[in-house]
Amino acid sequence: MWAGLFFGMMLTCAAAQSASAADCPGHPDAIGTSRTLVVDPREHPIIGTMQYAKTLPLRDHEVVLTFDDGPLPKYSYQILDILASQCVKATFFLVGRQANANPEGVRKVRDAGHTVATHTQNHPSNMNRLPIDRAQKEIEDGIASVTAALGDGTAPAPFFRIPGLGRSDAIEEYTESKGIQIWSADFPADDWRHVSSQRVYDLAIQRLEAKGKGILLLHDIQPRTVAALPRILRELKARGYRIVHVVPATPERPATPTEPQQWQLNPASEMVATSRWPKIPNFVYAGNTALLAPALSDFDWQDTAPKGRTQRRTWRDAQWSRQVTLVLDHPSLPVPAASVFELPESVRVTMLYTPPSARPVERTAQGPREDAREIETPAKPVPVRAGKSRRQIRAAAIRHPASAKHAAHQPAHAGKTDKGAAKHAAQAKQIKKNAVRVAGLKKR
Ligand SMILES: [Zn+2]
């Protein structure tokens, strides 16, 4: 019933809630806040492309600023001053314990017109591993502490950011059941790390430019953020970005009308920070396109070999050089969609790097035989990343049975079979050893 009432209000109150870029008295160069976006947590319980498929329905060049971990007067108040001087409204994810220590800071955030949201009571770094009842208590205590600090009977916005973005299904189910919206982010600026304020500025601008819009994750308790923020805001304005203020929907203030696709994940980009691992591709075949398959008759040549040695050689040369007929009406091979091969470049995967110490003998002009030998070289237990080791193992594993068979069928090698078997046993042992290493790496 609530939803129906809400929908009705949404239709009747569809007037644009955007305000023109606020005039900022005394600050003619301020970027201002271009509009207020009202969102309904019940309709979109989880947002932020660093972790989820959905994010705020922002237009191109729109930015939402968020600040975590405050209030800490020493720095939070400077952040508030900077935002005020630019007439920018942001969202603050406050920590309950900080609110208890600095209730005045919570009220300052509210009185400046920012959105007051929460970030647990004690900021545990292992939220996803806490028993769910303890995680719930962290969430609820954080809300209670901030509510107490507000002191006017109002509650913080039902927006919640998990410390360290340590999500879990149980936490998400709980917050959704409570009508609380989990805010991940679209990009951080790494301002909690020991980096320079220049680095914070660079990352904020680069990652935003790569995505074109989104939720920026910052921390109002960090001096480097205080130092970087004025430049970030100036640069945002210079590059034509607009600041959007987000507030929760209430019965009196309905959500800004949006289309479902506006909440969908943006196209991936190399500069977009992500904490999602690449998924195994879902093989979707592209339309009706098919690769030409060789005619079955092209495989059917063994029985027709002539008996004489010379004729056989001539015949064999002819077989190798002949053109294979490719046809479409035979069993055709579907073409994988191009997207199957896409790998977000932001994901750190070392694919083909071989440390100099592990490199086999330089290739010579001897051609394919040298290549084959290279692949058969047992993989050394080199401390490289999993991608590399796995590749070596697979290459060796594929080659192994073939070369064993080869040795058995070559009279010239007959006397070396024992030696060959020993070599292969050693290789197999080495492969097994490497496999263990890989498993160990994967576990971490
Ligand atoms: Zn935090």
Structure, explained:
The protein has 444 residues and is of the alpha/beta class. The chain has 2 domains: 256 residues, Alpha-Beta Barrel (TIM Barrel); 70 residues, no CATH class. The strands form 4 sheets. Strands 1, 3, 4, 5, 8, 9 and 10 form a 7-stranded parallel beta sheet that branches. Strands 2-7-6 form a 3-stranded parallel beta sheet, with helices on one face. Helix 2 packs parallel to helix 8. 29% of the residues are buried. The N terminus and C terminus are likely disordered. Bound molecules: zinc ion. The site of zinc ion has 5 residues, from loops.
Q: Could you name the key traits of this structure?
A:
444 residues, TIM Barrel, 3-stranded parallel beta sheet, disordered N terminus, disordered C terminus, binds zinc ion
